[in-house]
Each structure stands twice: as structure tokens, then as C-alpha cells.
Amino acid sequence: DAAPPLVPAPPKADYEPVIAVPEKEPESSDTVPVPDGAPVAVGDVVEFRFLSLGDDWKPALSPRKRATVVGAGADGSLELAPAGGVQPLALKRDELRELRRVTAAAAVSVRAAASDA
Question: Is the pTM of this model over 0.90?
């Protein structure tokens, strides 16, 4: 008796967790999207969201945040300094969601708020 031919397993789908999204926020009128793979420079002010664990231990999408890029690593990591004297965040770029560049006029106010802290 010949063994039945082997059938390859179907490819696994990438796991994408169900994410709790805060209430719908209006799009910022003073930002433009940063395309995937486009560079982000030190000194740019960006708006972004990121995944975190909620109080119920389920993945949740943060509200939009703004920060100045103070460092960029070769591995795609970004060091972001939020306004208000909050400790800088070190995040890989692929962990950020809805990455947007803040336009020049709005960026001035974010940089000023960060320097006041």
C-alpha cells in the first residue's frame, strides 16, 4: 500500500487581535498622513495612536497623541517627546497606528509646549 500523498497545511493567517477603539475622533485638519516607509526626521512633530492593554487586559487603541521626534534608530525605532514634560516614548515605527505629520503652524505650538515643560 502506498502512503497517501502529503497535503501541505494552509498558510496561517496573520493574527490580528480584536482592538477596542475609543469613540470616533474627527480627523485632525492640521496633519497629513505619513505613507508607509516614508522617512520621519528628528524635529518632526507627529500625531499617532498605539496599541496598549486596557483595564480589562484587552488590546486597545490609544487616543491620538502628539510628540516631537527626538531620535530615530536604524532599526525603525523612534524616540518621541510628548508635550507637557511627559517622559519620552521609545516605540518601533510599526507599533504606531495612524502616523501623521503635523503641519508647520501647528508644529510650532507643540514644540513650544514641550519646551515649556
Answer: no
